[in-house]
Amino acid sequence: MPEIMNVVGLYLGAFFTFCIFSFLYRDNPFYKFGEHVFVGLSAAYWLVYIFYKTLMPNLFTKLITDFSGNLILLIPAALGIMMLMRIHPKTTWISRYPLALVIGTSAGISILRYMQSDLLQQLTATMINPVVSGDGVTTIGNFLLIIGTICGIYFFYFSKKQEGVYAVPSKIGIWFLMISFGASFGYTVMARISLLIGRLEFLLKDWLHLIN
Amino acid sequence: MKRTLPLVVVFMIGMIVILSEFIPHRPFSKINETLENWFMIISGFAMLLGQISLIQVNTSKIRNRDENWQYNLAGMISFVLMLFVGFMWGMEKAPGLAGHGESLQAVLGMKPFDYLFEYVYTNLSATMFSLLAFFIASAAYRAFIIRSFESNLLMITAVIVILGRSSFGAMLTGWLPESWNILHLPKLTDFIMEFPNSAAQRAIMISAALGIIGSSLRIILGIERSYLGSDK
């Protein structure tokens, strides 16, 4: 029986794959159907996932197994329910309290995390001796790294109008940013093509068994 | 009171979290751990809030028989089905309200939730994103090329990276002598990724970090209050 259901599953997968690919012709009912099913399934998937991976181990299981020992967990549970009060316009204000806790925690964590990992560590990594004896390419690269970082940061400095001589480092910063965006774009294209190859492999190998 | 008390809560909690970094002893270390746990639990409920909003929007369209309401109905049916099988028989190793659903597992070969995930959700998701492969390149070409030096720089880098990460790119420049090694497309791609790309990424990270730290401080000190919404 599982073998038959496996085949049914493959046909389901192929049907929905064609539903989405039908958009290449133009927007049509099959695409719209697949799109809405995707939205419905994603929403339900994430809800079930959060329930089993976050709420169950951190809240419900602890309360069920040892209620008196985990009484403090009733506070986040109550705050969570208060968060749901946002649904009704008249009770929206109640959700401000759990929101305050979430915002306060994330703001505090953000300051510490970004200060350490994104600010100090990146600054430290840029403060290097660029000259590597006997390796001209790395030396040039290191100079580019330092100049690009400084000019890139300067580009994001908006407190003073960047004109005249002050616009030069900003312009260089834009060039570096464009190179980076181009690289990211190239990787995105490659990732999407890789997904497309995966889809064709599914259709031709898993579903139709045309290729090995 | 409806606005002041949340502001006080944000200030106190934000300060506790920051202080706990510099005082890694009880009670601060414990408070921080507890707050992070609560944060996860409340975020879980916030996720539920999003799904309720989705249901409200879709049921409203279905009830009013808006244009294309049939698709909203299909979306809602798939939502309810996935939710039902997830809560009834669980996912992966987690049991649901009706246990693991052994009889259903014997038929499907896995849990119903995992079956829908593997055969429908994964296929839909991968196809949806692979669809962009057809549009992204042509759209970008039309958007960026021959507009300015900067846009050309973007496209040229993208082409180098795409070719450099494929065997075709290696073949194209494979004939170059050893002294011209840096122009070998895979090597050139490595160079771009390691130096100019890293420089720009660092600039973005440092600048964004400064922005985030500034915004977080404004929130903790009560200067930024937009998250509280209006007074209604």
Give the tags:
heterodimer, A: mainly alpha, 6 helices, 75% helix, extended, B: mainly alpha, 74% helix
Provide an overview of this structure.
The complex is a heterodimer of chains A (212) and B (232). Chain A has 6 helices and no strands. Chain A has 212 residues and is an all-alpha fold. The longest helix of chain A is centred in the last third of the chain and has 41 residues, at 167-207. Chain A starts with a helix and ends in a 5-residue tail after the last helix. The mean pLDDT of chain A is 92. The radius of gyration of chain B is 27 Å and the shape is extended. The model of chain B has no long low-confidence stretch (mean pLDDT 90). Among the domains of chain B are: 1-66; 135-228, no CATH class. Chain B is mostly helical and 232 residues long. Chains A and B meet through helix 1, helix 2, helix 3, helix 4 and helix 5 of A and helix 1, helix 2, helix 3, helix 4 and helix 5 of B.
The chain-level structural class of chain B is: mainly alpha
**pLDDT averaged residue by residue of chain B:** 90
Q: How many DSSP-defined strands of chain A? A: 0
Mean pLDDT of chain A: 92
Beta fraction of the residues of chain B?
under 5%
Total DSSP helices of chain A? 6
* Major sheet summary line of chain A: none
Shape call of chain B: extended
Q: How helical, in percent, are the residues of chain B?
A: over 70%
The ordered H/E elements of chain A are HHHHHH
